[in-house]
Design goal:
By secondary structure, the chain is mainly alpha-helical. The chain has a domain at about 10-65: Multidrug-efflux Transporter Regulator, Chain: A, Domain 2, CATH 1.10.1660. About 50% of the residues lie in helices and about 10% in strands. A 3-stranded antiparallel beta sheet has the order 1-3-2. A hairpin with a 2-residue loop joins strand 2 and strand 3 (about 40-45). It starts with 7 loop residues before the first strand and ends in a 16-residue tail after the last helix.
Length: about 90
């Protein structure tokens, strides 16, 4: 049976992989917003977990977009009350 090797990224390597800044990654890891673990006080990331996290983020973003479009559609469908105009800006007397 072949041993399955998992790629482990350092902070620098993952920053290059995701094309984001190291400070952004450090903040995400420190707040538990990205799958990470520490070895001797330095952050490490499993590629398989990062790829799964990317997929989850992509799906969550797509769901948010669908919800946003539904809300926009509802707002276009709701009628505006006649007889009352909304003025923006300063009132001139």
């Amino acid at each position: 049976m072949k041993a399955h090797l998992q790629e482990i990224f350092t902070l620098d390597e993952l920053a290059a992989y995701l094309k984001v800044g190291k400070r952004t990654l450090y903040r995400l890891a420190a707040h538990g917003e990205i799958p990470a673990f520490k070895v001797g006080g330095t952050w490490r990331f499993r590629q398989s977990e990062i790829d799964r996290w990317i997929n989850d983020q992509t799906q969550a973003g797509a769901k948010k977009e669908v919800m946003r479009k539904r809300e926009q559609q509802k707002s276009f469908e709701s009628p505006v009350s006649p007889g009352r105009a909304v003025c923006r800006g300063r009132r001139r007397d």
